[in-house]
Amino acid sequence: MGDTCTRGCRFCAIKTSKAPPPLDVHEPENTAEAISRWGVGYIVMTSVDRDDLPDGGASHFAETIRKTKAKAPHILIEALTGDFQLDIPSIHLVAQSGLDVYAHNMETVESRTPFVRDPRAKYRQSLEVLRQVKVAKPEMITKTSIMLGVGETDEEVLQTLKDLRANNVDVVTFGQYMRPTKRHMKVSSYITPTKFDYWAQQAEEHGFLYWASGPLVRSSFQANKLMKSVAGRRLLKGLGREVGEVEVVGEGEGGRSWRGLGLRF
Q1: N or C: which end of the chain has fewer CB within 10 A?
Q2: Which positions bind [4Fe-4S] cluster 2 (predicted)?
């Protein structure tokens, strides 16, 4: 949906505008065609916020997912979306478009939300987005991410975990906020590896089905590993599939070949 966001969160380096360029009507088809040729088993689709559009771009997002599934039904799709200004039909449209994992990021705790995120992005609003996904499709895996180091307290993070589980969110990731430029908000603190391990333990104790926690972890960090979790295996079982490991061979720059281990679904 373009490279220009209608919002201006203080942690984000994406360029912003009140009037971004129009959507590319060919994007859903072109995106689906490209993905179908990649030979991958799991992708993450994301976008900027488009508050200038009547549905926030939900129909465009949903069409891209549907076309991708039509061309490559074996590919598992995770969608990382904005809040669509809490327009319920828009949230439900994306949730029911054929995707497998619905992600929407809380970003931070409730008290820090007004200082970290755009004024149009609200803590309770984001919780409701995640709740509405389950209303639209109860079996959907829901996912969110929390940045640490922006002035939050441990008690507030714990409360956020409780709020997420109260809304049946399945997956959570924790990462360190890194300041993109001097124009963006400063880092309040750097979280130690031991503390990241603590948050992973807390995620488990709170009942999340999958979690990732570390300084460089982001919402889409090794997202396909979700399929090895309880939540992932549940999804695959419903699709009549299972997860395994497979050797992957490719070619890099200068014709150099590489070999590694990937996941097969």
Answers
A1: C
A2: 5, 9, 12
